[in-house]
Every structure is written in structure tokens, then in C-alpha cells.
Specification:
Blueprint (H helix, E strand, L loop, with lengths): L1 H15 L20 E13 L5 E14 L1 E6 L4 E4 L7 E3 L2 E6 L3 E8 L6 E9 L2 E3 L1 H4 L4 E11 L5 H6 E10 L3 E5 L4 E5 L2 E8 L5 E9 L8 E6 L10 H79 L6 H45 L7 H8 L5 H59 L5 H74 L3 H16 L17 E10 L20 H7 L3
Parallel strand pairs: 1-17
Antiparallel strand pairs: 1-2, 2-7, 3-6, 4-7, 5-6, 8-9, 8-10, 10-15, 11-14, 11-16, 12-15, 13-14, 16-17
Helix pairs in contact: 4-5, 4-8, 4-9, 5-7, 7-8
Protein name: X-X-X-Leu-X-X-Gly heptad repeat-containing protein
Organism: Halobacillus aidingensis
Keywords: Signal
Length: 602
């Protein structure tokens, strides 16, 4: 029985022998290695990061498009290499890689250590405003904020940073994440998930944030894909826009010219307002001086009135004996009264002259205010011209104040014109009264020696009675006049203060108009060639983002030639719960063919 069993096993062995391959070397034959060639080499750099962006592992999948099968040479500081196409061994001597390619497409993998990426990547996390480590976030609820920053790695080949476009992708489970906000990114549906995408342009550093409400937090890996920005950018057709920009340049120049004219008009207005203020100040000083002297004038007149009354009473009740010295005192009093009235008359005459000058200056200044009307549309256009809003508001307020002052003056113009004749009439009346008093004083002095005392006393009684009565009327009129002067002085102080405010406003307006004109001049200068500036800016932008002339170089070694493309696939570690692994039953180790064959003989 053992013999029969052995015979059967041997027969089975013979049946399977033809299926065992025999290499050329086992036959004693060695195939000569022929030199091969390839047209293009492509590199895909795979890198894993931890959840905060620190680099962990890196390997490169190299792909060759073979023209002639045979031995080809590649370079790279790989820690180990692995054939991904067939079972042919790859020989590595330092950074030189020798391989035998038989297929049209040949792939092999090389692992790298310590090779820096062209970008520094940093990912940070906050939950409810508190910075947290990734492992602390698992299973938490709250307001999540993820910040992603990419910067240039100065320790790597800068050609990739300068010419590569990076796309950052986050996949978020809609059952976990709600109210997703990504100001610098796009949010799209991807099945049951929400996909957030950020883009970093060549030569740019990126800074992005994502916020969301999370429940029982878990997060998939953040993916970074970097590829050459090789698309060609054509300059857009901006013919119509250039025409519009030309019209805008012309309009800006017209605005500048209009503001220049406005500035000149405001300067003239300010000069007129300054002249008005000077004349008003002279008039105000005169009227205030006259008002200040009114009380003394009234007191002096009251004293004269009382003296006349006392003289009249004394003469009327006298015995006929008259003290000549009293006539001398009366003569002296009448002379002083006539002199006081003469001074008042001179003051009124001077006031009339000053008032006339001030009124003329006021009239000329008010008439110097331009008659033109600025519409609401023009004011709105000025606001939209880019000028300083504060200056524009000052211009508008001063324009409105100037127009109000012009209208107010037109309403009170007749009252101003009536003041001069009234002052002239008052001065004439005072002059007449002063002359009469002087004449009376002279007559008393010249007739004292030759007069008949009795008759003279009688005439004196009648004259004093008449003079006292008339002077009472004059005194009442004088009080009304001084009261009017006081009221005029008080009212004109407010007018003068208003004219001062107007002068200050026009001065600020002139300064603001000058500043506005400087701004519009600069605006007109800067926009004088808008079409040309647009062409220049567009050419600069096209040149900045058009990387179609970029020639790729190997990421692994500068010795590698015929590089068709280099791509980067980068992923962070996911943030997930530790799943309990169920203990699987130990599987019986699968036996090889030779083990099963030998078991037949056991």
C-alpha cells in the first residue's frame, strides 16, 4: 500500500513539473542587457502629514513612457525602491537607479526621507474660541474653527512654489457639520458630504479659515493637490471698456476744471466777506461807542432839564430881586449844553460816515456772492467724485450759508438804507439846537448891562418857562434816541458776530476748495490715461498668472531628464475615534504548493 501511495504521489509530481518556470540562468544562458530609451518621465509625489501639517512620510511614483525596451537609468536619494510594473529587480547604487523596462509604461516607487516640500503647511484648530490639539477634538461638540496657512519653504526648489497652483479640499460629513462658513473658499455638495475647496495661486501664500457647528466631531484627511498652472491666459477684449474709461478721464478733467472755477469764485467770496467784516467792525465800534456814551448824554441832559426847571421856579416865585450871578451861571450852563450837543452832533456825523462805509462794504460783499445755483444732482456728483467727504460737506454748508446771508440782506436792505438819512437828520437837529443855545447864551451875556431888570425878569420868566417846556420835549426825544441807539448797538453786535462767522466759514471754505482742487487735480492727472493704464495692468496680470511657458524639472534629482510633469498629492492624518478591533479568529496559515506536496509523503 505504501508503494502504491508513493507511486501515485510521484506521478502527481511529474504532472506538475512542466508548470514550474525555468529561468535562463538556470539553463546556463544569460540574456544580454540592451540599452533602452524613454520619451517622458512623470513624477507623482505622495506625502502624508500629521493633523497639524507636519511632514511625516514621502514617496514618489515614477512613470516612464518607454520608446525602446531595455535598461534605463534614473536618479534619486531613495531609501528604498520597489518595482510596480513587474518582478524584475531594480539595482540601486547610491542615487543611481538602474532598471529594465519591457512594457510601454513602466512604474516604480521610491521612498524619501528628509526631502522638504516646496510649501510649509500649518493647520490649527479652535473649539468655542479655545485652541485645541487635534486628538483633543474627537467626539466634541461646539463651534469649530479650522485655520490653514501655506507659505513658501525657503529650503526647497522655489520653481514649484512660483509655478504651481495648489487646491485644498476638505470633506465634511453633513451629519456632523452644520452652518459651514468658508469666506475664501467654495462649498459644494458631494453626496452626503459637503466639500470645501480653497485655491492658492502661484507665487502666493494662502491663509484660510473654516467655521462650522459640530456634533461628535470627526474629520477626514485634508487633501492638498499641487499641479503646474500651465493654462494659457488670453488678454480680454476691452475695447468698449477703454472707450468708457476715456469718457471717464474726460469727465474727471471737466470736474477738475469746474472745481478750479469754484475755487476762484470762493476766493472772491472770501475776499468780499473779509472786506465786509472790516467795514462791519468799524461800524460796530462806532455804534458801541455811541451807545456807551448815551447814558452820560442822557444824564447831562437831565441835569440841564432840572436846572431849567429850578431856574424857572425860582424866577416865577422871586420878589423881583434878581442875582446877576445866576444869569452868569445860566449863560455858562447854556454854553456847556450847546457844546455837549455839538459833540453829540459831531459823533452822529462821524457815525453816519462810518455807517455809510460799512453799509457800502456790506452791500458790495453781499453782491459779490455768486448768483449761480448748485443743484442737488451736481452736489451728488461731487460726493461721488472721490473727493474728501468732509471737505465736500463744508463746501455745501458754506454755500447754503452764503445764499441764506444773501437772501437775508435782500430782506433788510431797505432798513439799512434808512439808517443813514435818519442819522443825518438827527445830527442836523442837534446842530440847530446847539446854535440856538449858543445864541441864547450870547444874548444873555450882551444884554445884562443894558437891560431893564423888571422887564427883563418878566421876559426871562416867559423865556425860561418856554425853554423848560421845550427842553423837556427835547430830553424825552433824546432818551428815545439813545434807547434806539442802544437797541441798534445790541442787535448789530449779533449781526457783526454773524458776519465774523461768515468770514471764518468762507476762509475755511476757500481752504477746503483749495484742498479739493488739489485732490481733483491729482485725480485728473492719475486718470488722464486710463485706457493705457488698463492695458498695462492687464498685461501685467496676464504675465503674472500665465505659466504656460514653464518647463518642469524633477523634484527628486536635477540629474533626471525628459521630465514631463511633476505633481504633488498631500494628505493630513484624519481625526477619528479609535475603533475597537474585534479579535478575528486566527486563520490557519496558508500552505504553499511545495508544503502541500510534501504533506502527501508524510
Amino acid at each position: 500500500m505504501r508503494f502504491k501511495r508513493a507511486t501515485a504521489m510521484f506521478t502527481a509530481f511529474l504532472l506538475v513539473l512542466p508548470t514550474v518556470p525555468v529561468s535562463a540562468e538556470e539553463n546556463g544562458k544569460t540574456e544580454p542587457a540592451t540599452k533602452g530609451s524613454y520619451s517622458k518621465k512623470h513624477e507623482v509625489v505622495y506625502t502624508t502629514l500629521d493633523a497639524t501639517g507636519d511632514q511625516e512620510e514621502m514617496y514618489v511614483v515614477n512613470n516612464f513612457t518607454i520608446d525602446e525596451p531595455g535598461e534605463i537609468v534614473d536618479y534619486g536619494p531613495y531609501t528604498n525602491v520597489q518595482n510596480l510594473t513587474d518582478v524584475t529587480e531594480i539595482e540601486q547604487q547610491n542615487e543611481k537607479i538602474e532598471l529594465t523596462a519591457k512594457e510601454e509604461e513602466y512604474y516604480y516607487q521610491g521612498n524619501l526621507e528628509g526631502k522638504p516640500l516646496p510649501w510649509n503647511i500649518n493647520v490649527s484648530y479652535q473649539l468655542d474660541g479655545e485652541a485645541m490639539k487635534p486628538e483633543e477634538l474627537v467626539g466634541k461638540d461646539g463651534k469649530l474653527k479650522v485655520s490653514i496657512d501655506t507659505t513658501k519653504n525657503e529650503g526647497a526648489d522655489e520653481s514649484f512654489f512660483n509655478n504651481y497652483l495648489m487646491q485644498i479640499t476638505m470633506k465634511l460629513d453633513s451629519m456632523i457639520y452644520e452652518n459651514i462658513q468658508a469666506p475664501e473658499g467654495t462649498v459644494a455638495n458631494a453626496g452626503k458630504n459637503r466639500q470645501v475647496t480653497f485655491t492658492v495661486m502661484p507665487e502666493k501664500e494662502g491663509s484660510f479659515t473654516l467655521t462650522a457647528d459640530v456634533t461628535d466631531l470627526e474629520m477626514e484627511s485634508i487633501e492638498f493637490a499641487a499641479i503646474p498652472s500651465s493654462m494659457s491666459i488670453d488678454a480680454p477684449d476691452i475695447g468698449g471698456m477703454k472707450n468708457d474709461m476715456g469718457s471717464l478721464s474726460n469727465a474727471t478733467a471737466e470736474i477738475n476744471n469746474g472745481v478750479g472755477e469754484l475755487k476762484n469764485g470762493i476766493a472772491e467770496l472770501n475776499d468780499g466777506a473779509a472786506s465786509l467784516y472790516d467795514g462791519s467792525e468799524q461800524y460796530n465800534n462806532g455804534i458801541q461807542g455811541l451807545s456807551n456814551g448815551s447814558s452820560e448824554l442822557v444824564e447831562g441832559s437831565a441835569s440841564i432839564k432840572n436846572a431849567l426847571q429850578q431856574m424857572n421856579e425860582a424866577v416865577a416865585s422871586g420878589s423881583g430881586e434878581v442875582n446877576v450871578s445866576d444869569f452868569a451861571k445860566m449863560e455858562e450852563g447854556l454854553g456847556q449844553l450847546a457844546g455837549g450837543l455839538s459833540e453829540v452832533e459831531k459823533g452822529l456825523t462821524n457815525l453816519k460816515e462810518q455807517y455809510g462805509q460799512a453799509h457800502q462794504a456790506l452791500s458790495q460783499s453781499i453782491e459779490a456772492i455768486p448768483q449761480y445755483e448748485i443743484t442737488e444732482q451736481e452736489i451728488q456728483a461731487l460726493h461721488e467724485s472721490g473727493a474728501n467727504p468732509e471737505v465736500v460737506n463744508k463746501l455745501v454748508e458754506t454755500y447754503e450759508a452764503a445764499q441764506t446771508a444773501k437772501g437775508t440782506y435782500a430782506n433788510v436792505k431797505e432798513a439799512y438804507q434808512a439808517v443813514g438819512p435818519a442819522l443825518e437828520q438827527s445830527a442836523g437837529s442837534l446842530n440847530e439846537m446847539s446854535t440856538n443855545l449858543n445864541t441864547m447864551s450870547d444874548q444873555i451875556g450882551s444884554s445884562m448891562e443894558n437891560m431893564d431888570i423888571g422887564e427883563s425878569v418878566k421876559q426871562l420868566q416867559e423865556g425860561l418857562q418856554s425853554l423848560s417846556s421845550k427842553y423837556g420835549e427835547f430830553h424825552s426825544g433824546l432818551k428815545e434816541y439813545t434807547s434806539g441807539v442802544d437797541r441798534l448797538a445790541g442787535s448789530y453786535a449779533d449781526i457783526h458776530s454773524g458776519i465774523g462767522s461768515l468770514t471764518n466759514g468762507t476762509a475755511e471754505l476757500e481752504s477746503g476748495a483749495a484742498e479739493l482742487h488739489d485732490g481733483t487735480s491729482q485725480l485728473a492727472a492719475n486718470t488722464s490715461d486710463l485706457p493705457g493704464q488698463m492695458d498695462s495692468e492687464i498685461e501685467q496680470m496676464v504675465e503674472e498668472y500665465d505659466k504656460s511657458d514653464f518647463e518642469p524639472t524633477s523634484f527628486v534629482s536635477e540629474k533626471n531628464k525628459k521630465v514631463g510633469s511633476v505633481q504633488f498629492v498631500i494628505k493630513t492624518e484624519s481625526i477619528k475615534k479609535d475603533e475597537e478591533q474585534e479579535e478575528a479568529p486566527e486563520k490557519e496559515e496558508e500552505k504553499s504548493f511545495w508544503d502541500r506536496l510534501l504533506d502527501l509523503f508524510r
